[in-house]
Design goal:
The protein is an alpha/beta fold and about 450 residues long. Helix content is about 25%, strand content about 25%. It is built from eleven helices and 23 strands. The strands form six sheets. Strands 8-7-9-10-6-11-12-13-14 form a nine-stranded mixed β-sheet, with helices on both faces. α8 packs across α9 and α9 crosses α11. About 0% of the residues have low confidence. The structure holds thymidine-5'-diphosphate (TYD) and magnesium ion (MG). The site of thymidine-5'-diphosphate has 15 residues, from α2 and α3.
């Protein structure tokens, strides 16, 4: 058996034959860790296959199994594909184990055999959680184990339909001498589970911990190896959680589901827009409602702006929570240039309450109008919602799926929408007659219409 020493960056996965103080790939300091890889004699052996004529390739029939959580099924593209491997990433304490135990319960209740492997908690701890979630336990097997070869041997014996590994960072292969959680270990674990699950047609879920500081090398470096990547996000001190698909070989991505954590586990929220607008203040300057898209789903969310004179003259603050920092800086420059305000002596804060993050350019106009509302100290009427992308000349540009957005706005009782001129013609909105379209060509016009 040959051994090979490599140094892997624990932040980004970069590998080098010698130690370096700074990772040349991600620029982090002292993140390279020595990892000894024993290259086993047999290596990875894939079955030898010959080229096949395109027209002779058989159409794969994908059997999907659904959970009882409709929102989860939607995020994963209509159910879990048999034999697929899903990575579920998220911060510690966010609810990954809870979610997967709930899913295990659902699969087990449908008669699928589930093996839940935990390297983090004892069987008693899992059962305690299970009791809160109403797990009955027929068809659900628990295993407290961290040795990968033993895990696979047990799975081989039990022959489950669903395998859950909680977590990929606690499992280790005895083929490698590096410690659990290192890049080479998490890759090896994923690789072995992948090959095992594919040959046996077992659907598997790998839980991966990710920390806020961005030390997500482990799970991040697995994204290309798995079929589906789901991220579970939320603020610790908020009760809601957002589940998103980042990659899906069998379905659409960037679908989103919102859950609330209560004493009986995670409950799906069927109407996220209403949920995120629940605590919106009425008649306060600086708050607007944007109509954005998350995946295929429209979402109404609040954007808040606060402008106040700075204590840091010469270097006023530009803070954003839930919005892109650079894009916001660009929009602030546009407001100065086109609408005549000056932020020279002002701190500007922008916030998306509830811990949501909005990445879509269609939120531009709403960000601008939130700032203008704050500067004018005039509230935006509560029945108005906004969408539109803004270009560097201050022009408002059309965005995708205007009708989807209007329908969502109408269903929540909004009856005025400020939107890009020509994004939607009036006869198209046939289905939703009681919503008034306020079209604007540029940001000056939008600001005049609104105030
Ligand atoms: P957990 O699933 O253990 O998080 P992770 O696996 O991502 O580390 O759950 C985290 C939190 O959820 C924990 O602090 C307790 C809370 N919780 C509830 O509020 N209600 C419940 O029914 C359960 C099971 C957990
Ligand atoms: Mg856990």
């Amino acid at each position: 058996m040959k051994t090979k020493t490599t140094f892997s960056c624990q932040n980004c996965g970069f590998q080098s034959p010698k130690w370096l103080g700074r990772c040349p790939s991600c620029g982090e300091w002292e993140t390279l860790v020595e990892e000894i890889e024993e290259q086993s004699a047999e290596g990875f052996s894939f079955p030898v296959s010959d080229p096949v004529l395109y027209k002779d390739v058989k159409e794969a029939k994908k059997r999907r199994i659904k959970t009882g959580i409709e929102e989860f099924n939607r995020v994963i593209g209509g159910g879990v594909v048999l034999g697929s491997i899903v990575l579920v990433g998220g911060e510690p304490g966010i609810g990954k184990s809870t979610l997967l135990l709930q899913i295990s319960r659902d699969f087990a209740e449908q008669g699928e055999k589930v093996l839940y492997i935990s390297g983090e908690e004892s069987l008693e701890q899992i059962k305690l959680r299970g009791q809160r979630l109403g797990v009955q336990g027929e068809n659900l097997y628990l295993l407290a184990e961290t040795n990968l070869e033993r895990i696979i041997a047990q799975a081989e014996k039990l022959k489950p339909q669903i395998l859950i590994l909680d977590s990929v960072q606690t499992a280790f292969s005895s083929k490698l001498s590096s410690s659990p959680g290192t890049i080479s270990q998490v890759r090896e674990v994923t690789n072995q589970i992948f090959r095992f699950a594919k040959t046996r047609e077992i659907s598997s879920f790998l839980i991966g911990h990710i920390t806020k500081e961005g030390s997500l090398a482990g799970p991040k470096s697995l994204e290309h190896m798995v079929d589906v990547v789901l991220y579970f996000e939320g603020e610790r001190d908020h009760s809601y959680r957002v589940l998103r698909a980042l990659k899906n070989r069998f379905g659409p991505v960037s679908e989103l589901a919102v859950f609330e954590m209560d004493e009986k586990g995670l409950q799906a929220i069927a109407n996220p827009s209403a949920f995120f607008l629940k605590e919106r203040p009425k008649d306060e300057a600086g708050s607007v409602v944007v109509c954005t898209l998350k995946g295929s789903r429209p979402l109404l969310a609040e954007i808040q702006a606060l402008v106040s004179s700075t204590l840091f003259s010469g270097n006023p603050r530009r803070m954003t929570v839930g919005l892109d920092h650079f894009r916001t800086a660009m929009l602030l420059a546009l407001i100065e240039r086109k609408l005549g305000y000056s932020f020279a002596g002002e701190d500007v804060y922008l916030n998306v309450p509830g811990g949501l993050s909005l990445e879509e350019p269609a939120t531009d106009l709403a960000v601008i109008l939130a700032v203008v509302s704050c500067m004018k100290n005039k509230a935006v009427p509560p029945d108005v919602t906004i969408f539109g992308e803004v270009g560097l000349s201050g022009e408002i540009r059309s965005v995708s799926q205007p009708l989807t957005r209007l329908k969502e706005a109408a269903s929540l009782g909004f009856n005025k929408v400020i939107l890009p001129k020509g994004n939607m013609n009036n006869k198209d909105k046939g289905g939703i007659p009681d919503i008034q379209l306020l079209e604007a060509k540029n940001i000056r016009e939008a600001s005049q219409i609104l105030f």
